């Protein structure tokens, strides 16, 4: 159960937000002041902090600085301050999202879940593109949440493409990258076969992913009909 610290001086609004978050399976703690929030942040690590900018005894921007000095806890500003300068300042301080009041609670929950997904993907070295999820650390990949069976060469190719989106990878570059530490050689014909097999496993009517740049090599696009 993910723990969320909600810093909101409007007791009714904060209680309502916490109630809805707990219905979604989150564990919440509500505080209403800068001082209380500072103590809670020092006491333990939180999996997310939702923070109002205007607090009775301080401002949320200063609190955000304090949080960022400690760690990279996901941080969302939830505030009536909708001026561009305030929003930009929030992101400059490391906010993962900035939601203005009044808000739709269903949209807030969607955005909270989106921040968690991005954070977890970053921590796990998880690459998400279209209907693919690739875990470089575990060397696994899924398509539409179903496991893909890839050979070591196919996975290495996939990793090269994913880490170089929008760049043309020449056949020479790919051949050099696929040459392993034991000197096992991958020739032009083998490269063509492996790219073709990889395409057949990851592509569909919506995502082609790998675009052939004739006379040069390949490019990772993630687009339809590449």
Automatic annotation (TrEMBL):
Domain OmpR/PhoB-type: 124-222
Coiled coil: none
Residues that bear 4-aspartylphosphate: 52
Gene Ontology CC: cytosol; protein-DNA complex
GO biological process: regulation of DNA-templated transcription
GO molecular function: phosphorelay response regulator activity; transcription cis-regulatory region binding
DNA-binding region(s) from the entry: 124-222
Superkingdom per UniProt: Bacteria
Record-linked Pfam families: Response_reg, Trans_reg_C
PANTHER family documented for this protein: PHOSPHATE REGULON TRANSCRIPTIONAL REGULATORY PROTEIN PHOB, REGULATOR OF RPOS
Name the UniProt record assigns to this protein: Stage 0 sporulation protein A homolog
Gene source species: Eubacterium callanderi
Lineage, broadest ranks: Bacteria, Bacillati, Bacillota, Clostridia, Eubacteriales
């Amino acid at each position: 159960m993910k723990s969320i610290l909600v810093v909101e001086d409007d007791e009714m609004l904060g209680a309502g937000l916490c109630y809805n978050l707990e219905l979604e399976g989150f564990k919440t703690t509500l505080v209403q002041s800068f001082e209380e929030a500072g103590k809670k942040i020092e006491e333990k690590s939180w999996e997310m902090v939702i923070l109002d900018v205007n607090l009775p005894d301080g401002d949320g921007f200063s609190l955000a600085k304090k949080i960022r000095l400690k760690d990279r806890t996901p941080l969302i500003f939830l505030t009536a301050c909708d001026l561009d300068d305030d929003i930009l300042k929030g992101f400059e301080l490391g906010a993962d999202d900035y939601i203005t009041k009044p808000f739709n609670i269903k949209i807030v929950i969607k955005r909270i879940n989106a921040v968690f997904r991005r954070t977890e993907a970053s921590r796990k070295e998880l690459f998400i593109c279209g209907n693919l999820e690739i875990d470089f650390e575990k060397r696994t990949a899924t398509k539409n949440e179903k496991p893909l069976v890839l050979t070591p060469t196919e996975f290495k190719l996939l990793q090269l493409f994913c880490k170089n989106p929008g760049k043309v990878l020449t056949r020479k570059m790919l051949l050099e990258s696929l040459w392993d530490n034991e000197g096992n050689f991958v020739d032009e014909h083998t490269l063509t076969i492996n790219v073709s097999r990889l395409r057949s496993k990851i592509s569909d009517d919506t995502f082609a992913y790998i675009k052939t740049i004739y006379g040069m090599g390949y490019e990772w696009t993630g687009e339809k009909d590449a």
